[in-house]
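Incident log, structure service

09:12 report received: a user says their structure output differs between two submissions of the same chain.
09:20 pulled the input from the user's history:
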Amino acid sequence: MGGSTSKLKRWMSNGVDGTEQCQRPVKKLATPFVYTRRGSMYFDEDGDVAHEFYEEIPPLRRGVKATMRRILTNLTPQGEVRLPFPCLHVDFPIVLYQDS
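09:34 re-ran on a clean worker, output below:
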């Protein structure tokens, strides 16, 4: 998904070392949910948002179609985009179970 859960690193320990139980508490600093993602669109100098921008090049000769050239300059990335609802992070080691 490419999203981020939080800026803190997630440290989890299972509390088991060999055969006996450790008395160390389990640290949970992150959530399994993803709230933001990196945007895939760009802003141009007019403030329009799109995946790609093109400009029309007029033909030099009569009877030839106009060509479209991609604009690659003066574009700024969209940045972080908030998701409409949280999603589960793909790398979070958790088992989901629902008893029906």
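09:41 both user submissions now match this output. Likely a transient worker issue. Closing.
09:42 reviewer note: Residues 46 and 54 are 13 Å apart (CA to CA). Strands lie at 16-17, 20-21, 33-38, 42-43, 49-50, 54-57, 67-70, 76-77, 80-88.
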